[in-house]
Specification:
Number of helices: 13
CATH superfamily of the domain at 6-28 and 118-285: NADH-ubiquinone oxidoreductase 51kDa subunit
Helix content: 25-40%
Mean pLDDT: 95
Number of strands: 17
Low-confidence stretches: none
Order of helices and strands: EEEEEEEEHHEHHEHEHEHEEHEEEHHHHH
Shape: globular
Bound molecules: iron/sulfur cluster
CATH architecture of the domain at 6-28 and 118-285: 3-Layer(aba) Sandwich
Length: 450
């Protein structure tokens, strides 16, 4: 049994302590979003190549039926989130701000919306490769927000082996509570998902790391760990960005992932707790990724909630379900306040990676006026991967991007801890994002030119 004394709990070095603001929704049970008339399913809602449609406009589709296949190994399949008719495959507004090719489904108002081909998958008699294939076919991506295809993460390269599987339940982003509620409400699905992942990976042991601002979830999971499952529940101090794979691995195992390397390079695989629970549901019901729990929160939404939302539901419909926005909303973020993206329209769909939507009013908007750097080094103390944000920021401001490479800018996780810590309001992480994108483009051009 563990104790919850914070001094005894594990964590990583550096990082920041933003207020968590999770009280708005942490005690709200997950509610199911009522069905709406139209669903918009973008072909790009994961990292990697877009999915390729296998249906046409005018075709009838069933809830859970494959509508687009993966467009390569690093890609993901897509399934109908409702029974209805495909009305169009056309560009639609996307959370990224771009227009993205999407499959549009009009819901069949008379359908009972039963799951297409619902049945239990006999996982105990399936080989690891069969389990992995089922996950690939189910369109799984990281539901924590990164949306990296899960089957790629669980595919172990030749010559590598996995000792430990870490379930990422840190949920360190302020305001978000979807993982917290999944832990409280779906422990059986989580533990089934862990069993299946351990079997695929051939790993010895699982660890589930969650911060102690989720004490009730930690206690509930601790009481429910199946006797035959080698899984340890690990309470962590509350600190940002503990949900980053490098930081979580350091916190849980005290193992460092070297610069430019991945968890697998130190025999570890990390996966988000919501994804693991959804894997459990895949094997319990043959349910692919067609819905997800999303936290709808912030001072600018009238009824903050955790909502189980079919993928492709328009944000405007979700806002209506949550009582509407207050009149003084000034910013809407897809994701949390540290790593989320500001969106300009509510005419965009909830995608597989939408862990939360946060609504801010005038009162929460802080001044964006930038002051000169005062060399306080708070950004250096905050950076969990030991970069020098003040120096990198100066280079970025001068457009000296090549020199940023020498200071390991590509190790930057864009966590925003440096910007949060900076008393001069210097938009460090924003500059690093631009610098990294330009450097990536330059590297791609150089590769193309030989
Ligand atoms: S430099 Fe990058 S990794 Fe370091 S704190 Fe800033 S955003 Fe995070
Ligand atoms: S925190 Fe801001 S002001 Fe302080 S050294 Fe870093 S960039 Fe300069």
């Amino acid at each position: 049994m563990f104790t919850f004394l914070s001094s005894a709990n594990k964590t990583f070095d550096r990082g920041v302590h933003p207020g968590d603001f999770k009280e708005l929704t942490r005690t709200h049970m997950v509610e199911r979003m009522p069905l709406v008339d139209e669903y918009i399913l973008p072909l790009s809602q994961h990292l990697g190549g877009p999915s390729k449609p296998v249906v046409k406009a005018g075709e009838k589709v069933y809830r859970g039926q494959l509508i687009a296949q993966a467009g390569g190994f690093v890609s993901a399949a897509l399934h109908a989130s409702v029974t209805g008719t495909v009305t169009a495959i056309e560009p639609r507004p996307h959370p990224s701000g771009r227009m993205v090719e999407s499959i549009v489904i009009k819901r069949d108002l008379h359908s009972a919306q039963r799951l297409f081909d619902e049945h239990v998958l006999d996982w105990e008699n399936m080989q690891p490769a069969e389990l992995l294939s089922a996950i690939q076919k189910g369109g799984f991506v990281g539901l924590g927000g990164a949306a990296f295809p899960t089957h790629v993460k669980l595919s172990i390269p030749e010559g590598k082996r996995v000792e430990f599987f870490i379930v990422n339940a840190a949920e360190c982003e302020p305001y978000l509570t979807s993982d917290h509620r999944v832990m409280l409400e779906q422990p059986e699905a989580i533990f089934l998902g862990i069993k299946i992942c351990l079997k695929i990976l051939g790993a010895e042991r699982a660890y589930l790391g969650a911060e102690i601002n989720k004490l009730d979830a930690l206690a509930r999971l601790q009481n429910k760990v199946p006797a035959d499952l080698p899984c340890e529940i690990v309470p962590l101090q509350t600190k940002y960005p503990q949900g980053a794979e490098k930081m979580l691995t350091e916190a849980v195992l005290k193992r460092e992932i070297p610069s430019g390397k991945l968890p697998i390079d130190i025999s570890v695989v990390v996966n988000n707790v919501g994804t693991v629970a959804a894997i459990g549901d895949l094997f319990r019901y043959n349910q692919p990724v067609i819905e997800r729990v999303t936290t709808i929160t912030g001072p600018g939404i009238r009824k903050p909630r955790n909502v189980l939302i079919p993928i492709g539901t328009k944000l405007s419909e979700v806002i209506e379900f949550c009582g509407g926005m207050s009149d003084d909303v000034r910013q809407i973020l897809f994701g949390g306040p540290m790593m989320g993206n500001a969106i300009r329209t509510t005419d965009i769909p909830i995608t597989k990676g939408t862990s939360g939507v946060v609504f801010f009013t005038e009162d929460e908007m802080i001044s964006t006026r930038e002051y000169p750097c005062i060399r306080c080094m708070r950004c250096v103390d905050a950076c969990p991967v030991y970069l020098n944000p003040t120096q990198l920021g100066a280079l970025a401001r001068a457009g000296r991007y090549d020199e940023m490479m020498d200071l390991n800018i590509m190790d930057c996780m864009e966590c925003g801890s440096c910007s949060y810590a900076c008393p001069s309001n210097i938009p460090l992480v924003q500059r690093f994002r631009i610098g990294k994108a330009l450097l990536r483009e330059k590297m791609a051009r150089e590769r193309a030119n030989g």
